[in-house]
Write a structure and sequence with these properties.
Strand content: under 5%
Radius of gyration: 29 Å
Order of helices and strands: HHHH
Largest sheet: none
Shape: elongated
Distance between the termini: 72 Å
Length: about 160
């Protein structure tokens, strides 16, 4: 099937993306710190520190999403609960980033974001619970004896109470 390979690919891509986002924000923090310029009166040290903290936070977020995808690949079961919410939020983040990078970075980054979005959605959709076929209404369950059983008479309801 396609489930496990997709989960493995999503896990690897999210781990690489986590490292890339953290490294890029760390580099941007170093650049802001070395230029020693302010933006609209903001302190350069504060901007540098916030860029580094943002990189660490988003890197950990993507790493956690990658861990959920890795667990899905190892266990071969769908993500449930908090893990499913994380993967859905990662899909939403990638959709928003795809719209943003289309204008700012260009179409190669847009294509990358859309491919990652499609992989996450494919991971979420291929692990749906199997649908159980409904039993026909005219057949009784196997453990309930029917009138054709020779083990005794069928159960009858007690007589209705009468009032004098």
């Amino acid at each position: 099937m396609v489930r496990r390979p997709v989960a493995w690919v999503v896990a690897v891509v999210l781990f690489v993306e986590a490292l890339g986002v953290a490294a890029l924000n760390w580099f941007l923090g170093i650049v802001v710190d070395r230029q020693d310029m302010s933006l609209a009166g903001l302190d350069p040290d504060t901007m540098s520190l916030s860029s580094k903290i943002g990189g660490i936070v988003f890197g950990l977020y993507y790493a956690l999403c990658g861990l959920v995808a890795l667990l899905v690949a190892i266990r071969n079961r769908p993500a449930a609960g908090f893990g499913r919410v994380l993967l859905i939020s990662a899909a939403v983040v990638h959709a928003l980033l795809a719209a943003l990078v289309w204008g700012l970075v260009g179409w190669p980054a847009f294509v990358f974001m859309v491919v990652v979005l499609a992989l996450i959605v494919l991971l979420l959709m291929t692990y749906e619970a199997p649908v159980q076929p409904a039993e026909p209404a005219d057949t009784p369950p196997a453990d309930v004896p029917g009138p054709e059983d020779d083990e005794g008479s069928p159960v009858t309801s007690p007589p209705a109470p009468t009032t004098p």
